[in-house]
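Example record

One chain of 220 residues, shown exactly as stored in the release files.
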Amino acid sequence: MFNKCYKCFRPVKSCYCKDITPIDTGIKFVLLMHPKEAFKQKTGTGRLTALSLIDSEIIIGTDFTRHKRVNALISGVGEFAQYYPVLLFPSKDACFADTPSLRQAIGSKKLMVLLVDATWFLAQKMLKFSKNLMHLPKLSFKNEYRSQFHIKLQPDPSYLSTIESTCYLINELKTAGIARSDADPAGLMSVFQKMVTFQQRCTQMRHEEEAIALHPELFD
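Predicted structure tokens for this chain:
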């Protein structure tokens, strides 16, 4: 039985909380996390992302159609009138960070980005179930990126982890003058790279142990 950090929900030996530098982007981030990412995914980056962002929250579920908190956040009513909610999702009708109509729509409000934290397959199912989310304005990347998450097999190199997506989005929003000019998302990628390096080292050690067990004579 291993000791767990109850902040990032990782084993203490692979806890990265001490490496996190909170970032104030001037944007609210809402991570809609699939239960598998929340409780079972050893290589999930959602919690590390949320811990790195000031004014962020995690909401766990699969169908948010009738989710009280989600519907309140996107309602535009009362205390939530301060936000302009968008869904980070590739779509034909999605705008980019530098699309003039996005800045006009935000106006004096605070941008709120909802992003789905799940595998691509599960994310599609979550959005199919969550009718309220698909009515939101869509935001997508203007630039093309390739995932550096080499320890986790993705259907396509352009499928990014949550922490990579957030980092690249912040950079594009900074360039567009929407995120704070002093927001530096480099800390996100630093923590991400440490996690990848640790997982690669664990995989290498596991392979070495298997090799020794199969061919001990080679290691005498």
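Notes: The chain has a mean pLDDT of 86.
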